[in-house]
Amino acid sequence: MKARRAGMRALIASLIAARVTIATFFIVLVSVSVSAWYHIQLPQGRHLVANLVHDLVNGEIKGQLQISEIVSISPTKVVTKNVYLYDAEGRRVAFGKTVTITPDFRAAFRGTLRFAHARLNGGRVNLYPSESGLPTLITAFEARDPTPGIGPPIHAVVDDIQIEKVAVRGEVLGLKGLLAKDFKANWRLEFNRKIQVTVFSAQGQLLEPFPFKLALQDLRGLIETDLARGISLAARLKNGTEHYTVALRYFKDPKKADEPTLDVHVNTASVSARTIQGLGFEWAKILNFNAAGIFVFWPA
Predict the structure, then answer these.
(1) With bands split at pLDDT 50, 70 and 90, how would you rate the model's confidence at 188?
(2) How many Å apart are CA 234 and CA 228, to the nearest integer?
């Protein structure tokens, strides 16, 4: 009987000790987590996080991402200021004055760098053509090493990107001297070894290169670095009382060695001779009436 009681006391003592050990473990774990979170809120901690992001992203893409300042970090939101993106040639292709992102930590356990939302307020975009004809703003996200290697490449997704008050200038698909102000857009970015950009909507004011101002009322479509799919965009524009719908395709037939094909179809109910002349067709100055229909443009 005494032996049984001694055994029971020993068992109870062991259980109590185990509970104390487990409780101590969780207390230590919580303490470490709180300490780590506290240090992340400090300027040195935020600087460390920015460097970690630089190392992770810049080691995988052809371009370079630079975050000048992380203003605040929380489980649901990261606020940054003065964010720069450079293309493979070292040219600045994008600048964001204030960028706010919502990270998806659960996706990280699946091997994906995902952000549910991203907001950019105020900035500039410079468009330069790449060898493929696509803007280097897009190709900057291409994989630094396009060949399969050990382990999968970085898989990054930004599901909901909102940009506002952005100025855009440069050259895109042969159109030089482009200048747009008050540009805003909603789009999605995904890159693995190839890049896919889905444009949900976009608006802005096109000030150049045409001798008249165009209001971009809407733009949507798909942009891919795989030129077999290439670019497919639909736009609505307005010039005074004139309204246009534009369908643009830029792609390359993988079975042919030819240069990529650019097709631009413009549909309008009424367009003046002055507008046609402003597009570079000098012969239009002999017209003294408005035209309507579908106009097809192709590069010379």
Answers:
(1) very high
(2) 18
